Amino acid sequence: MKPVLKQNPLESEAIYIFREVVAQFENPVLLFSGGKDSITLVRLAQKAFYPSRIPFPLLHIDTGHNFPETIEFRDRLVKELGLQLIVRNVQDDIDNGKAIEEKGKYSSRNGLQTTTLLDAIEEFKFDACIGGARRDEEKARAKERIFSVRNDFGEWDEKNQRPEVFDMLNGRIHLGQNVRVFPISNWTELDVWSYIAAERVEIPSIYFSHEREIFDRDGLIWSASEHVYREDDERIQKRKVRFRTVGDMTCTAAVASEADTIEKIIQEIRGSSISERGARIDDKRSEAAMETRKQQGYF
Amino acid sequence: MEVLKIATAGSVDDGKSTLIGRLLYDTRSLTSDKIEAIEKSSRKKGLDYLDFSLATDGLVAEREQGITIDVAHIYFSTQKKSYIIADTPGHVEYTRNMVTGASTSEASIILVDARKGVIEQTYRHFFINNLLRIKEVVVAVNKMDLVNYSEEVFNEIVSDFTKLQQDSNFKEQRLTFIPVSALWGENIAERSTAMKWFEGPSVLEHLENIKTENLQETSQARFSVQTVIRPKTNEFHDYRGYAGKVTASSFKVGDEVTVLPSLTTSTIKEICFFEEQFDEAPAGSSVTITLTDDINVARGDMLVKTGEVPEATKEVNATICWMDGKPLLPGNKYLLQHNTNGVLAKIDKINAHIATNFQPAGDASSLKLNEIGSVTLKLSKPVFADSYNKNKENGRFILIDSQTNTTAGVGFIQ
Ligand SMILES: Nc1nc2c(ncn2[C@@H]2O[C@H](COP(=O)(O)OP(=O)(O)OP(=O)(O)O)[C@@H](O)[C@H]2O)c(=O)[nH]1
User: Fold this and answer.
1) Which 3-state string (H, E, C) describes chain B?
2) Cβ of residue B22 lying under 6 Å from some atom of ligand 1
3) Which of residues 280-299 of A touch B (CB under 8 A)?
4) CATH fold of the domain at B312-413
5) Can you give the pLDDT at residue B170?
6) pTM score of the predicted model
């Protein structure tokens, strides 16, 4: 037996939130993208309910444009922890005409995920969707509550949010509504990396420096892939890069990097003058890109 | 690393967002893409300086109207501490969002516009800070550039503010006055060269020196059960753990505990966190506790040390801050959530309406949005609560409207 427990306050808070979700909702789900934030959530959930298994399934909204490394990693994690994984494909919604593929140079399936997500929520009657969004990521996210109520259409009413005082989380909703829950709201990018390092959590290989076929556009580095639109004059080169976020291939740019261990990644982020989402093309679309997507039911 | 949670407060346009933006800028916490975005928007608005409030006003409506509507949480760190700042709105209309932001903070910065001095909203926010019992308060007298960095103006505001404090019954509170210009960074991260007459620290210097351990409460330990963990696997066949958070003080293995409301007693067998076991869990930790006896414990129950049992009561007197558009009226019923426990509550009477401005208190027939009053509630079942002054975590509750499900008010038990 060890003497006095010294818990990271961010970890205590996240575990408290997970336990409130399980106590207050009938049918929660964890939105899993395969990125470092959702991997951190899985770790926290594991610790929150140990020695029980994680008492809810994972839901992955697959754009079909994922990095293959992420998918391999996902399947391995699910098997190791004995979790239930639900996958819903954006491709199916494109095939049945519910979602329409974007065209052109900046086309991406990122926005299309909303339709597939909302359908999955309805299909499984999920009342709480746990996500890995952090308030330091983006200015609209900085405004969101930990328990964020969405109406039947998945919309966020940002000007009329429920007061959330102290640590008292009110998850009462009407039938058809759902709550988006963000246990790591108060974590920064660096907090997540430090936690991954301290806990020795495994993460997909694309976070580490590796040689990759890429091309340059608008000062950002893009992965050369059949899924990413490329102009004739955008030449493919090989370069040492890594990814800071692993969203959809079409909206996630790489950064030139030599960091091949977590410790080096942490050092790199400390010294970086660009924010994490600086490499996300979906936010660059307009100043209110995230807020608009959230209002419509995005993660 | 040490974490300090701070909230800003003050009237509309006193410069809360600007001060935070400036802190971020001066501590090099703004990344180049964010600075670029601020430069671009400032130019678009025709300004010849950087409008740092754009760093925190995250909603379209806020940027359009140039005001803060809801709390934004901002993060930055120095060598010494990690800071979480809640940038709260100044407008009376959004007082409930200000309360939301301040409720999770351990320290606050109240801004005062040097040209306007202590006004109604300053008083209201100071009052709410006292109600929440925030121990460490910085009063930043801002826009000193617009009053020629005058020492007299500053001193006058300090003396007005000190008078407010005399009426307060919260003597442990520490007030620190600092003259600043958020826009020009005077006394924000570094000491001002324009106000050499001021010998105190800059805002950041002061924050760096706050000892967070002094902000902790010394009250009796409480443990609200969030959920029961029963794995029912072969390895953990008979395991029955109570998951929850330790609030105040600590629990140790071997402690004799009383379970509320049943009043059954037992002893702490194990304190578990993931695959490890500990001898002691201090305040703030999320753990799983097992007991030596097989007794009935469920969500909403509370473990306390035997001999430290709070009194059970079916009638509660509380100061309530109302947060809903539908007013609180005598006779109304709400769901009262006290820690993880929920009971039905009926408003028995409103004893007094508490003035949070310089006007006399209104009549006590109702509490409207953003009003504060002293209220008596009758409960369907007894709760084991403390007074907020004695035990913060066990002395507060929220009222939930059972028709709309919204959080309609927050209460501080007297
Ligand atoms: N001259 C001068 N102007 C300032 C100073 N601080 C803030 N301002 C200006 O005052 C205006 C309001 O500042 P904000 O930071 O948006 O005010 P706020 O307190 O956040 O307002 P709300 O959040 O809406 O309550 C802006 O135009 C700022 O540029 C200062 O020190 N000197």
Assistant:
1) CEEEEEEEECCCCCCHHHHHHHHHHHCCCCCHHHHHHHHHHHHHCCCCCCCHHHHCCCCHHHHHHCCCCCCEEEEEECCCEEEEEEECCCCHHHHHHHHHHHHCCCEEEEEEECCCCCCHHHHHHHHHHHHHCCCEEEEEEECHHHHCCCHHHHHHHHHHHHHHHHCCCCCCCEEEEEECECCCCECCCECCCCCCCCCCCCHHHHHHHCCHHHHCCCCCCEEEEEEEECCCCCCCCCCCEEEEEEECCEEECCCEEEEECCCEEEEEEEEEECCEEEEEEECCCEEEEEECCCCCCCCCCEEEECCCCCCEEEEEEEEEEECCCCCECCCCEEEEEECCEEEEEEEEEEEEEECCCCCCCCCCCCECCCCEEEEEEEEEEEEECCCCCCCCHHHEEEEECCCCCCEEEEEEEC
2) no
3) 287-288, 291
4) Elongation Factor Tu (Ef-tu); domain 3 (2.40.30)
5) 86
6) 0.93
Which residue lies with its CA nearest to atom 12 of ligand 1? B13
For B339, name the nearest residue in chain A, comparing CA atoms only: A168
* Number of Cβ atoms within 10 Å of the Cβ of A65: 20
User: Who among A1, A49, A140 is closest to B58 (CB)?
Assistant: A140
**What are the residue boundaries of the structural domains of chain B, listed by start?**
3-214, 222-305, 312-413
Task: Tally A–B CB contacts below 8 A.
Answer: 179
Q: Determine whether the shortest distance from the Cβ of B8 to ligand 1 is under 6 A.
A: no
ipTM of the complex model: 0.95
Smallest Cβ distance to B229: which of A11, A52, A142? A52
Has domain B222-305 been given CATH number 3.40.50.1260? no
Ligand 1: residue whose CA is nearest its atom 1: B143
- Under CATH, which number does the domain B3-214 receive? 3.40.50.300
In chain A, domain spans: 9-191+288-296, 206-281
Nearest residue of A to residue B405, measured between CA atoms: A172
CA of B49, closest atom in ligand 1: 29
Give me the residues paired with residue B109 across strands: B8, B138
pLDDT at B248: 85
| Radius of gyration of chain B measured on its C-alpha atoms | 24
- Is the pLDDT score of B70 beyond 90? no
Report CA-CA distances (Å) from B208 to A187, B135, B175: 20, 16, 16
Residues B326 and A138: their CA atoms lie apart, in Å, by 33
For residue A49, give the nearest of B41, B229, B281 by CB distance. B229
- pLDDT tens for A140-164 read 888 899 999 988 787 888 888 999 9
Q: Given this chain, do its domains B3-214 and B312-413 carry the same CATH topology?
A: no
- The CATH code of domain A9-191+288-296 reads 3.40.50.620
Ligand 1 pocket member B14 (CB < 6 A) = yes
Tell whether ligand 1 has an atom less than 6 A from the beta carbon of residue B186: no
Burial class (CB in 10 A: 0-12, 13-18, 19+), B315: exposed
